[in-house]
Each structure stands twice: as C-alpha cells, then as structure tokens.
Amino acid sequence: MDRLLAGQATVSNGSLTVAALAIEAGVHRMALMKRHADLRNIFYERVRTETGQTAEPEKRLRETVTRLKQTVADQNAEIHALRQQVVRLTLAAAVLTHGRSIRPGVRPDNVSVLRPGPAETRPGR
Fold it and tell me: What superkingdom does the record give (predicted)?
C-alpha cells in the first residue's frame, strides 16, 4: 500500500486500484476484495486522504450516476411530452368523432362531418 501511494510500484502498473494493490501484495485480487474488504477500505481511504485523488472505482461510479441522472431527466421530459401529445390527440379524436369543434360554432376548414347512413346500409346491423 505504501509503495503504491508513494508512486514506487515494483510489480504493478502503479495505478491506485485494488487490482494494483493485489499485484503488489502478491495475492489474488478477489481475495483482497472479498476476504480482506477492511484492507480495501483502508486503501481507498488512504488514497483519498494522502493523495487527494478519488479512487478509480469511485470515479467510475460517479460518472455512471451522472449519466443515469441525465437519462432519467431525458426520460421524464419525454414522458411529459408524450402525455401532452396524448391530450392533444384525445381532443382531436373527440372533435373528429363528434363532428364539432372545441369552440362551439367554429369548425376547422380541414374537418368534414361524416353522418351515418341508413341503418340497413351500415355493415353489421
């Protein structure tokens, strides 16, 4: 741990990660991650306090959180737009179905009223 923090790695690439720490210690990475979680936490705390750097996994997590927050914001905006579109389409369907405008007495130029024909000529009756 001291060699990595001092920037004097002998067998690893010198990055401030648990993988590099495991290589420097000569142990398997998963042994350090699972059985010695306390050492992993001490290492990350020392990285944060002694070097003023944020550990790589923490950086990746922060980037992921930022990206996910943006995704949620984008999806919320899309949901809002879709809800507004549903309202507009529902109103348009009501106008077209009932043959009347939202404002009484005013009909748009592009709307034609379709009247049902006699009962005997309509299919299904």
Answer: Bacteria
57: which residues sit within 8 A by CB, 6+ positions away? 17, 18, 44
Domain shared by 31 and 70, yes or no: no
Burial of residue 108 (number of CB atoms within 10 Å: 0-12, 13-18, 19+): exposed
Same domain, yes or no, for 47 and 61?
no
Q: Are residues 1 and 49 in the same domain?
A: yes
The number of folded domains in the chain is: 2
pTM: 0.44
Cβ proximity of 21 and 1 under 8 Å: yes
Domain contains 36 = yes
Q: Which of 89, 113, 109 is nearest to 99 (CA)?
A: 113
Distance CA 86, CA 66 (A): 30
Q: What's the average model confidence in pLDDT over 5-21?
A: 84
